[in-house]
Specification:
InterPro entries: DUF1348, NTF2-like_dom_sf
Organism: Pegethrix bostrychoides GSE-TBD4-15B
Largest sheet: 6 strands, mixed
Oligomer: single chain
Number of helices: 3
CATH class: Alpha Beta
Pfam family, one: DUF1348
Structural class: alpha+beta
Low-confidence stretches: 1-10
Number of domains: 1
Protein name: Nuclear transport factor 2 family protein
Amino acid sequence: MANSISVEQTSNSKPPLPPFTLETAKAKVQAAEDAWNTRDPERVALAYTEDSEWRNRTEFFSGRDAIREFLKRKWAKELDYRLKKELWCFMDHRIAVRFEYEWHDEAGCWSRAYGNENWEFAENGLMMRRFASINDLPIQESERKFRWERV
């Protein structure tokens, strides 16, 4: 992996920008949580560089188009998706988060996913790498923790 982080990778900026402080790292995590809870693949994809590299569970892909397609598939299957992210640690242009999200399938079976993400950012604040490790737990509807209204 290259350590070179270049603003030429994209033409726009997504504050807060690295290097991160505790305050700006928390803001970056909250912005990601808010965007993902919209379940809007177009909006979410704009937070990533055009050539962003992803690992999500066992899927490996890169680029905004692939991100959009992945998110469309994900949210077509994971209904009433609600996500909570928490800053785990940060340094310079990298952030690690832990997260939980809940969703149900077409049959009404609920699941909660637990995981960790490692993020690496370009100097313009767009994410150039996202590596996610995720485990699922079937739950009953009565066990749900995240019950706020849809955005």
